Amino acid sequence: MRGTDERAGSLFSYVDLESRIPPKHPLRAIRAIVNEALATLDADFAGLYARIGRPSIPPEQLLRAMLLQLFYAIRSERLLVERLDFDLSFRWFVGLGIDDRVWDASTFSKNRDRLLDGDVAVAVLAAILDQPRVKRLLSTEHFSVDGTLIEAWASMKSFRPKDGGDGQDPPPSGGSTSDRNAVRNGEVDFHGEKRSNATHASTTDPDAMLYRKSPGTGAVLCYMGHVLMENRNGLVVDAETTRVSEHAERMAAVEMIKGVTSPSGKRRITVDADRGFDTRDFVEDLRELGATPHIAQNTAGRRSAIDVRTTRHPGYATSIRVRKRIEEVFGWIKGSAGQRKTKVRGLAKVRFAFTFAAAAYNLVRLPKLLAA
User: Fold this and answer.
1) pLDDT digits (tens, 9 = 90+) for 239-258
2) What is the pTM of this model?
3) Which of 133, 295, 298, 310 can bridge 275 by disulfide, Cβ–Cβ 3.0-4.6 Å?
4) How far apart, in whole angstroms, are the C-alpha atoms of residue 286 and residue 281?
5) What is the DSSP string of 176-218?
6) Which helix (H) or strand (E) segment is 221 a member of?
7) Beta bridge partners of residue 209, listed in sequence order
8) Per DSSP, what are the bridge partners of residue 143?
9) Which tens digits make up the pLDDT trace of 267-312?
10) Strands 291-295 and 269-273, how do they pair?
11) Are 237 and 159 in contact (CB under 8 A)?
C-alpha cells in the first residue's frame, strides 16, 4: 500500500544522537582521539577562564566545532553555525544535544583571543601526538622539513608608504556610501613605483610582508608556514608560522629540529629537505645538532654543501624520495583546510590557524593508520 505524503508532528522527541551515527563513521575514531587530547588539557583551559561569573561556552566544544570547519572545508564560521543547527552528526561530534541551542557565530571571534593567550593550537597538536597509540606510529629518527607561503588577508592597495606620502588621497569620511566605495576601491596604478618592506607596510595587516616566491612570479602580501614531518607515516610533529624572509625557512627549521634531537647527542636523526635548504650554514647547524642532512643538492651554477659523505649512502636516495610526502601536508592544509589565503589578520592569529590545521591533518589520517 502506498504511504501518504503527510507531515506528522510530535510533541516530544526521543532521538538518540549516538544511535544516529554509523558505527564505522570516520568521525567516531577522530572524536575518541580528540576527546582524549582535550581531557589532558583540562587544567590549561581552567587557567584561561575566571573562577566566578556566568559560565561560558566550553572551549572543548568550540575546538571540536573548529575542527569540523576544517574537515568539511566550511568557508566561514557563520556557515558552520548554520550547519550545526541542522546536522545531527555535527551536533554529536561537538557535544550538543538535539534540543540544545546553537551559539552565535560571533562567539568564535570573542573566544579566539583567549585561546591565543593559552597557545591552545600548539597544545592540541602536542596532546594528540603524545597519546601512546599515536606515539607508536611516529618515527624518532627520520624527519622532513619544508615551508610554504600563506597569502595574507590584505589587498595590495593597503601596501602604502610608512610615512604616508603615497600621493593618493585617503578615503573620504563624509558623503554617500557609493562615493566612499568609489574612492576606496578605485583603480590604482603601481607601475614605476618602487615598493619594499623597508619603506612600505600594509595598513590592513601590518604583520604581512611583501614577498616573491620565485623569479618571474608576482610579489604578494603573505606569511610563511613551516612544517616538520616524520617520515614513517607522514604525520606532522611540529608547525610554525613566521614573517617572510630569505632565511625564514632555515631559521624556523633549525628551531623545530631542536625539539626532536637528542640532548645527549647519542641518537642521530636524518633531516630531509629540498634544495632551497642547501646552504653551508644550514648544513653545519644540522650537524651541530646531531642531525644528518639529507638535502637535495643544488648545483645550479654553484657548489652543493652536500658532498659524497652523505650521498654515497643508500638512505640518502630513500630520504629524497620520501621527502616529497610533505607536499601532501601543504596540499591538505592550503586546500581542504582553506589556509591558502588566511581569513585572519596578525601573526599570532595566522600562527594559531596554521598550527590548528596541522593538527586537523593528523586527525584525518590517524583513523586509517590506527586501524592498520
Assistant:
1) 999 999 999 999 999 999 99
2) 0.90
3) 298
4) 9
5) -HHHHHHHHTS----TT----TTTEEESS-TT-EEE-SSTTS-
6) strand 220-230
7) 222
8) 230, 271
9) 789 999 999 999 999 999 999 999 999 999 998 888 999 988 889 9
10) parallel
11) no
